[in-house]
Amino acid sequence: MKEQSPMPFAAETRFAVAIARRAGLAARESTSHGLVETKSSFADLRTATDLRVERLVRDAIRAAFPRHAVVGEETAADRRPPLDGPTWFVDPVDGTTNFVHGIPHVACNVALWADGALRCGATVDVTRRSVYWSTAGRGARQGRRLLRVSDVAALAGSVIATGFPYDRAVRADNNLPEFARIVPRVQDVRRLGCAGLDLAWVAAGRLDGYWEQGNGPWDWAAGALLVREAGGTVTTYDGTPWRPGDETLVASNGRIHDELLGLIQSTRAAVFG
After folding, report:
1. How far apart are CA 65 and CA 88, in angstroms?
2. 3-state secondary structure of 171
3. Would you say the pTM of this structure is higher than 0.70?
């Protein structure tokens, strides 16, 4: 019998899960979030825990994969990295505002881009101690449980999630027009404050869709692969497949995607021309 070749990116997937678990433990064991700073606006927060956990993950990646680039939320120079080599995307504390206010809905996200595509990733639900992970072509899982997107077929029967830019107070393109248009046409909208878990819950079938703008690739990369590997669809607002560096994202079970995307596009055309 011919020996089977090893699963592509198996080692990287195991590493992503292990280091995401370590990051989640470090965040969970922080008895105090420490220093609180603002970044791009008064609503964009950074804590000592963000910095400490990102350093932990970055050091581990550099030790395990010294030729790979690392793009972390707290130290990235550019939201649109070149993607010309293996690149890890790291969000050490996804949901920092929740974390600062003691709201138990926080994640750590780790994902690898290589050979022109997302290859593997992991999102840890810090409070619930649950790991969502995926490898390209091998499906998405929560622990050992295989994930599958929901079968809701119409937007009117869907529960979807969204978020808003940190500079929404001074920015006209702030998702409020889209939100106002979509809310009356769905079963409900959730604003949970953690993009990584929003996407993980789309992959798990708990949410039927999600849209947002202005996040970095560290917020979305792991979750985008989860949704795709669970059978869903992930695009930009213009309908092209999402890639790290794109500044808009729509994720869904696939069945409601065109309807949701159409509402976003028509609203933006009416408001912004």
Report:
1. 10
2. coil
3. yes
